[in-house]
Amino acid sequence: MDERRLVRVSKYLAKHLRHRPERIGIELDAHGWVDIDVLLAAAASNGFPISRSELEQVVAGNDKRRYTIEGDRIRANQGHSVPVDLDLPVVEPPSILYHGTVARNLPPIRVEGLRPMGRHHVHLSPDRETATRVGARRGKPVVLVVDAAGMHGAGHEFRVSANGVWLVDHVPPHFIRWPTGRTSAS
Q1: pLDDT beyond 70 at 14
Q2: 0.90 exceeded by pTM
Q3: 51/65 Cα distance (integer angstroms)
Q4: Nearest-angstrom CA–CA distance, 98 and 87
Q5: Please, what are the domains in the chain?
Q6: What's the Cα-to-Cα distance from 76 to each of 39, 55, 73, 111, 125, rounded to whole Å?
Q7: Would you say the C-alpha torsion 105, 107, 112, 114 has a positive or negative sign?
Q8: Residue 174 carries which DSSP code?
Q9: Residue 100 in contact with residue 133, Cβ under 8 Å?
Q10: Closest by alpha carbon to 163, among 47, 84, 38, 64?
Q11: What is the pLDDT of residue 184?
């Protein structure tokens, strides 16, 4: 499959496994799973046919490991805006985690901290490089350092998705280390 098709299929999956399953007539179960045959039939009947081989190629080749296939089911690993319970256990986080954003988002973050916005959780990265890539999707990245150990000690619950993204309900501003360099919104 060529790279453009790979990206198109991945974006199609993200839209329908994370945000708009009803748009193609599928229903995710309580944990975000859908039968692969149901997904493929729905995609085809909505003008976007995907072969089982293409689906497996997208899942296996996605560098962010956004999707998981388990038996005859598939789901997105995190990032849902529709109600799902990913059934991830609470785990102790590393001492620090990272969040990639852009300078224009810093003023509200300084006041409210990191909020999930339209998703179920705030997404945190295990390393600065990943957070930089995440922030760069929206412009010049700014990487925030999160005192995950301090949050954990204060009773905040952390979960980690199948693809290594750390999930938390909210990051209060006092657990964020702010960039020391000048940014246009600092």
Answers
A1: yes
A2: no
A3: 19
A4: 23
A5: 3-76 (1.10.10.970), 96-177 (3.20.170.30)
A6: 13, 13, 11, 31, 17
A7: positive
A8: G
A9: yes
A10: 64
A11: 43
